Amino acid sequence: xxxxxxxxxxxxxxxxxxxxxxxxxxxxxxxxxxxxxxxxxxxxxxxxxxxxxxxxxxxxxxxxxxxxxxxxxxxxxxxxxxxxxxxxxxxxxxxxxxxxxxxxxxxxxxxxxxxxxxxxxxxxxxxxxxxxxxxxxxxxxxxxxxxxxxxxxxxxxxxxxxxxxxxxxxxxxxxxxxxxxxxxxxxxxxxxxxxxxxxxxxxxxxxxxxxxxxxxxxxxxxxxxxxxxxxxxxxxxxxxxxxxxxxxxxxxxxxxxxxxxxxxxxxxxxxxxxxxxxxxxxxxxxxxxxxxxxxxxxxxxxxxxxxxxxxxxxxxxxxxxxxxxxxxxxxxxxxxxxxxxxxxxxxxxxxxxxxxxxxxxxxxxxxxxxxxxxxxxxxxxxxxxxxxxxxxxxxxxxxxxxxxxxxxxxxxxxxxxxxxxxxxxx
Amino acid sequence: xxxxxxxxxxxxxxxxxxxxxxxxxxxxxxxxxxxxxxxxxxxxxxxxxxxxxxxxxxxxxxxxxxxxxxxxxxxxxxxxxxxxxxxxxxxxxxxxxxxxxxxxxxxxxxxxxxxxxxxxxxxxxxxxxxxxxxxxxxxxxxxxxxxxxxxxxxxxxxxxxxxxxxxxxxxxxxxxxxxxxxxxxxxxxxxxxxxxxxxxxxxxxxxxxxxxxxxxxxxxxxxxxxxxxxxxxxxxxxxxxxxxxxxxxxxxxxxxxxxxxxxxxxxxxxxxxxxxxxxxxxxxxxxxxxxxxxxxxxxxxxxxxxxxxxxxxxxxxxxxxxxxxxxxxxxxxxxxxxxxxxxxxxxxxxxxxxxxxxxxxxxxxxxxxxxxxxxxxxxxxxxxxxxxxxxxxxxxxxxxxxxxxxxxxxxxxxxxxxxxxxxxxx
Lengths: 426, 426
Prior knowledge:
Two copies of one chain form a homodimer. Chain A is an alpha/beta fold. Helices cover about 45% and strands about 20% of the residues of chain A.
């Protein structure tokens, strides 16, 4: 066994031991732990900022873009916001211990399906350093131990934040090793974590498609994936076109760089001209580039925008997550064609219909096989906060265990407790 | 692309199309489909029996054991039982469409978390031919399309049964391709299925550890695993020893070859002698071989059994699923030591405590991290039928999505439907 292998296995062993201790903790203890973690982050402001300065200067040398450097950089205000983000989690309701169902069998056996922590959660990420505290605190709140493995570009910041979190845990009488950061940014560490199904109950990769696919191909345990959102809105013949304009503008322009922004709009043929005069023009005014199929291009190209522009779409535009002020536009004959397009080109993330026809809307809501399906609302609501969950680990594009906004409840599982009086099977 | 690759991809494409059609079907239609499938199996009795005769004679030539040949063999009575098993599923409650939760956000958006089919379920098995109909009908009932890939030893029977099921579906106006059997018993077919995450939403391997591990290492989609049950019972100092005897005998002897049979008993030191005089003797009478740690061996070796026997355990005996009239026995000082043993040696399947001390029992029920935890009952109740679920796909040893008995509900997932009146995100 290599030294690295032994090191990673020890992370697993310690996490499993910590998870057992957490299984004995009360909700109150864990909430005190959360508050102590927030205090510890605040107290470690100096250490965190100097560690972060190392990452930022390394990033500058590596030639990271200004946007990436901004995402990486911490300030006193950002550390305070991080601590507050942790503190807020203490106030959320704790799903652990909830009785999901309880029933008694004819032989008198009482069966309780009860919500319990998952155990040990692995988070492999390459994003901003605050993922370290965000993810770890949600896991701790729900009684899970966490093994974090962040990217090399924020390694110093991550280590400083994780150290603060562990100190907070210890101060609250909880096992410091309930939160561990793997300080090895080597790719091999990811392989070793993915093989450790004895100690890791689930892995959540947070980052680009390449990272997720690597984890999926290596992992022996369940992986909760957060893939692209190619979100689609269908504007039906019976749509209120004023409402359509507001929804499409919001779904495309309010924050184009996120997974729940709309990427394709399908317009029913009969309302194409009016839709373009209203929504099309409004999109141009917002600087949006429309990638149109031939039919919509014939209309769009006559609109003479002051900003934005219309171009003919290529086939791949309907399979692209633009994450930008770019929108694919296609004309369809009706609901059937829209459903087929969504089935063939969507990513099962968030898709919606805009219509005043309730029967049509209900058919859409039933048949579209996506995590979140909308009738007359912006796709931008696919979000733990907007759902009222108070926090989120991310938006799962998986179908099993966690689908759509993944929050505290999705960090738990269940077990069955059977209470008997000597029952034996006949 | 190889010809086999193209063939397997076509299975996937057809299954996805069938799943879309099933998403439009009503519960009533699917139940009529289930009844038509039962009729079709009965009507195809001759074809199924002649196909089965080919498998049995091939098995005989290959030198399969008498027990294996018996598992493989179908008779008119077994075909009738198979048809009845299918028919029974029609009467079970359908979980699809259940509103899990519904709430309204302050902005008026109504969010409904609703139970839906998973989509396309892959079943890879090497067991008896009736898995073909059992698994397929539970999937169909819950609106899922299935791709089945059985083992080579029952290939002719499987094809005949699957053909009958498809005929039944078509007769009921449902897509015949909602149930497809891959007639390729080549190992490569398994690899190709495991890579097809675009069309298969989940894979359930049914069979030996080797098969499950192959699927786990290849699959790009979630796998629901049914691994070993190393089930453990702890007889505490406060146990009613008469009850302990009944429970241990039942859990070990009623059907030793199944995953929920007990494999290790831990006995608290103070009650060892009395336990051995009562339960130990009863186990010997049933012909059980006890593999004892040194301390229990000192007592057991003086019991002079008429049947069964006591031997000194090797270390591996405490990590073995015997599936036979063999039981590992170990003395512990108390609850803590029992919990540590279960954590280190159990398989998180079904573990129990026998005690009259409620506080001790509740601690056990809370801390043991197994799918099913028992207080004063036999571990043999871990079973979909015994839980009142009416049917089961198997006993999942996974923690996510399906844990413990996996039945109709575990063949579904959920999605969120959001009904709005033009809401946009601020």
